Amino acid sequence: MKQARGIKQGWILGEYLIDLAELLDNGISLREGLELLTSDAPHNPVEQALHQVTTSVAKGGDFTLAIESAFPSLPKFCIEIIRQAQKEHDLPNALLRLGNYMLDMQSFSLKSTSIGKSLIYPAALSIIGIVILTMLMLFVIPQFEALFREFGAELPPITQNMIDLSAYLADSWERLAAIIFLIFIAWRYLFPQFPLTRRLKGFILLRIPVLNNLYRLSIETQLTRTLGLLGANKTLQLKFLQAAEQLLSGSYAGDKIVKVIERTKSGYSLPDAFSKSGLFTRRFITMLRMAQRQGLKEGLLLRQAERNKRILNDAPNFNRMLEPVLMTIMGLILGYLVVAMYLPIFQLGALM
């Protein structure tokens, strides 16, 4: 819910900046444009902050300082772009680019959320399978055990192991259920509060097939889109990296960004610093080298970001690949149970 509110507020601010840019481009003054856009009563925190900006500018305050005060969470490099655009009298173009950037990033956040939602079905399928297997172990296998005990024959190792596991689950299922419940509560509500958990999450994602590529692409798309916003202004690169580090602070990717910043300060070029981090793909590093040679042109970076987004757009469909894999695993487990339970019966039948 909190993430959804953040996406909605970012969307409102992005549309506001685009509308303001269009008004300025049509010859309306900054003060008049602000007053036109905030003429209605505010209905959410973003609109309240925008009214604060309008009031400050109407009293003769600086627009950049008003934006910085009203939106303290706005990345510093965005503030720098607005400040520089004011000095160069290019505010409409800067606000238009910033607005499009914010809408693009909010759209990406929605897509990342849908990727997470796409895992719900495979997770639900896995949980149902685990519940069915647990019921078999607790209620069905003990019936076979009683049947085998009547014959008094020696059981095959595969069957004896299954019966031992069933007996352990019967004796300890309450304790195991409590442990699983506590782990779920801790993972859902407690662990996200600790940076170590966020680092561990990124570390684990990088070692899971398919998900590791999605994790890299999600980070690279955000960085590429932000670098594209900066355009040819190389003096903002370090400030961008610092803002990216703050955005990803406490995460595995954030630690990598910190090392990238340290390397750029020590004399490494931007592509070399990213390359040595070990997190980013070769395509991303190649794109950075090409962009650097061409003066970090916005078009090249934006095209790369769009390519990444198209790949991520297909990501929710990978649960279609997980479904047959999960079904195969469940089939193998059920087959193991069937063989373990019926093998002694076949052996007894052969002896008779």
Describe the structure.
Helix content is 80%, strand content 0%. The chain contains 16 helices and no strands. The chain has helices at 2-25, 30-37, 45-58, 63-70, 76-87, 91-118, 120-151, 157-190, 195-205, 211-230, 237-247, 252-265, 270-275, 282-293, 298-313, 319-351. It is elongated, with a radius of gyration of 29 Å. The model is unreliable at 1-7 (pLDDT under 50).
Q: Radius of gyration over alpha carbons?
A: 29 Å
Helix residue percentage: over 70%
Derived from helix and strand composition plus strand pairing, the structural class reads mainly alpha
Strand content: under 5%
> What is the string of SSEs from the N terminus onward?
HHHHHHHHHHHHHHHH
Q: Return the average pLDDT rounded to an integer.
A: 77
Total helix count?
Answer: 16
Shape: elongated
* Terminal residue distance: 66 Å
Query: How would you describe the oligomerization state of the chains in this entry?
Result: single chain
Major sheet size, sense and barrel closure: none
Poorly predicted residue ranges: 1-7
Total number of beta strands:
0
Task: Provide a concise account of the structure shown.
This protein is 80% helix and 0% strand. The chain is an all-alpha fold and 352 residues long.
